[in-house]
Amino acid sequence: MRIKRGKVEVLADVVSSQIKMHSAYGGVVPQLAARAHLRNMVPVLEKAFEKAGISKKKIDYIAVTKGPGLIPALMIGVNAAKALSFALDKPLVEVNHLEGHIYANWLEKEKADLYSLKKMRFPVLCLIVSGGHTQLVLMKADMKFRIVGETVDDAVGEAFDKVAKILGLGYPGGPIVEKLAEAGDARAIAFPRPMMGSKDFNFSFSGLKTAVLYEAKGKNLDDKKYIADVAASFQAAALDVLSVKTLQAAKKYGARNIFLGGGVSANKALRKTLREKFAKELPEANVDFPPFKFTTDNALMIAIAGYYRISQGEGITDCKHLKADMNLRLI
Ligand code: KG4
Ligand code: ZN
Questions:
Q1: Would you write out the chain's pLDDT as a tens digit for each of its 331 residues?
Q2: Is the CB of residue 202 less than 8 Å from the CB of residue 151?
Q3: Whose atoms come closest to the Cα of 169: which ligand?
């Protein structure tokens, strides 16, 4: 990407998906992911440079995900970025994967491959909902994060994936469960709303997942109506807790911008639930979402977060010492 006067021009945006490979196993297999990263790294880079139509020497910075995530995959990415930085003598910017998901919200589409950067009104509250994380993150300024709530067990994306597995659907489960839920009755089964009444902003999804497991035990999973009802009832329970806690945290911290980040932010029902809840109970807050294209993992979000890190005078890292960190936290 190229940034000039608040405009983001996407020169190339290449995603090499491994979904087909992992779906045969019903989830991501770390060693297979690492091998595929290794295989795909150079072809993806070649394609990106070709699409962008610029020479490697013309780039100013290389932004890379340091963590969190699966260590075998992170290591391939970090090593490739270090090699590029060393060979081209270009500065390396380390980015937290979740910063990337948060900063995807700063993008306002103008036209194909051209975005402007939104003017932020802090405090910003971002609900991160991905395959590995469920967190409420408060920001009082750019690149200053405070985790005010998070899941004590499973991530909500993981719960969507597990529910799809229990119901004998494919992988990843989120989009499939969402699609099926559209035809189901969300009140058909009264699934629990874990931690709904807790005074903090933490979440729990493992009990909800287990409730779906017990509900589906011995049932006819070829019954399309039943599957749709389970999907809709599960989704409603998950979205209920997410939206109520987000609203409560927004009220407590006086948040002015409310955002969503991570793969589950592609869920249209979640977007609708949040919009409706805030319009009714906290209309002064501005609820907005990342462009659909940049909800699931992508390189642009890492580049944007890298740009903000550089703007804050941080993030430039010593190519010799950069290491992947599977448990990296936002700070
Ligand atoms: O952020 P992401 O692409 O990867 C991680 O960093 O984890 O998120 C992937 C997760 C998966 O669990 C997937 O099932 C979920 O996002 N997801 C969805 C939807 N699209 C993707 N969950 C619910 N509804 C969706 N439409
Ligand atoms: Zn992600």
A1: 999 999 999 999 999 999 999 988 888 899 999 999 999 999 999 999 999 999 999 999 999 999 999 999 999 999 999 999 999 999 999 999 999 999 999 999 999 999 999 999 999 999 999 999 999 999 999 999 999 999 999 999 999 999 999 999 999 999 999 999 999 999 999 999 999 999 999 999 999 999 999 999 999 999 999 999 999 999 999 999 999 999 999 999 999 999 999 999 999 999 999 999 999 999 999 999 999 999 999 999 999 999 999 999 988 998 889 999 999 999 8
A2: yes
A3: 1
Q: Answer whether residue 171 is part of any domain.
A: yes
Range of the domain at 153: 121-287
Are residues 39 and 150 both part of a single domain?
A: no
DSSP 14-64: -----HHHHHTTTS--HHHHHHHHHHHHHHHHHHHHHHHT--GGG---EEE
Is residue 297 lining ligand 1, measured as CB closer than 6 Å? yes
| Length of the chain in terms of residues written | 331
* Ligand 1 pocket test, candidate residues 176, 264, 300, most atoms within 8 A of CB: 264
Q: Is 175 in the pocket of ligand 1 (CB under 6 A)?
A: yes
Q: Quick one: which ligand is closest to 155's CA?
A: 1
Q: Is any ligand 1 atom within 6 A of the Cβ of residue 264?
A: yes
CA of 158 to the centre of ligand 1 (A): 8
How does pLDDT run across 32-48, given as a tens digit for each residue? Answer: 999 999 999 999 999 99
The total domain count for the chain is 2
- DSSP codes of every residue in 75-137: HHHHHHHHHHHHHHT--EEEEEHHHHHHHGGGEEEEETTEEEEPPP-SSEEEEEE-SS-EEEE
Residues 131 and 20 in one domain: no
Q: Are residues 162 and 242 in the same domain?
A: yes
Q: Whose CA is nearest to atom 2 of ligand 1?
A: 263
Q: Output the domain CATH number for residue 172.
A: 3.30.420.40
Query: How many angstroms does the Cα of residue 220 sit away from the middle of ligand 2?
Result: 34
Domain-located, residue 127: yes
Substitution candidate for ligand 1 out of 160, 165, 235 with most atoms within 8 A of CB: 160
Q: 268 with 158, same domain?
A: yes
| 128 and 80 co-located in one domain | no
Query: Is residue 150 domain-resident?
Result: yes
